[in-house]
Design brief:
It is built from six helices and six strands, in the order H-E-H-H-H-E-E-E-E-E-H-H. By secondary structure, it is of the alpha+beta class. It has a four-stranded mixed sheet with strand order 2-5-1-6, with helices on both faces. Helix 1 crosses helix 5. The chain is globular, with a radius of gyration of 21 Å.
């Protein structure tokens, strides 16, 4: 009888621990989800992985950041930032194409607003969790080379003096998660595995 009671107590404790872990992860994932739906990423894909094409990608990056530097400063929401990006997509494309042609290449460039999957990514002093994000995507030529990315809303790609805080678009708690990657290392990895599986099955 005592053994049975002890087993029931142990099962209860184990169940309680499992529930606590699941609840903790659920709260963490909710904050990650707010990050995924609170930023607009800039995603530039190089024509290839050759050194020349990778250098060209960086030139295009610099030009796009220059052109868009004032676009999103007055944006109060992701929806507003996406609307601004869409209305200026022609100017962004033209600026990228001019940079490519001036550098002696005839690659065509394509820019669009898309939803793309990203793994966990570290950018300077914060980390964005894996998942599907809205992105201003710029493809150079065949777009088969390594990509470059950052966040244009809030403007964390801009020079330090002009940088926005993540709290411009997400809560203090969610911004805290992004800036505490070491503290949430295991949870970030767990979330990445979960998002990869979910993204894989969503494509079927």
């Amino acid at each position: 009888m005592k053994k049975e009671i002890r087993k029931n107590i142990e099962k209860g404790i184990l169940f309680g621990l499992i529930c606590a872990v699941m609840l903790s992860f659920s709260r963490f994932d909710a904050r990650c989800d707010e990050l995924r739906h609170g930023v607009l990423r800039l995603h530039i894909l190089a024509n290839s992985d050759s050194e020349a094409d990778q250098q060209l990608k960086l030139k295009v990056r610099d030009r796009i950041l220059e052109v868009t530097s004032g676009y999103f400063s007055e944006s109060d929401s992701l929806e507003d930032a996406i609307c601004i990006a869409k209305s200026n997509i022609g100017k962004i494309t033209a600026a990228a194409q001019e940079t490519i042609n001036a550098s002696g290449y005839n690659y065509k460039v394509n820019a669009s607003i898309e939803e793309n999957y990203f793994d966990n990514r570290v950018y300077e002093d914060f980390t964005l969790p894996a998942g599907v994000y809205n992105s201003l995507t710029v493809r150079i030529g065949k777009a088969e080379g390594h990509n470059w990315w950052c966040v244009v809303f809030p403007g964390v790609c801009l020079p330090a003096a002009q940088k926005d805080s993540l709290q411009k678009s997400v809560s203090k708690d969610s911004a805290g998660v992004a800036k505490s990657a070491a503290k949430y290392k295991l949870k970030f990895k767990t979330a990445e595995i979960y998002e990869k599986i979910r993204h894989k099955f969503s494509k079927k």
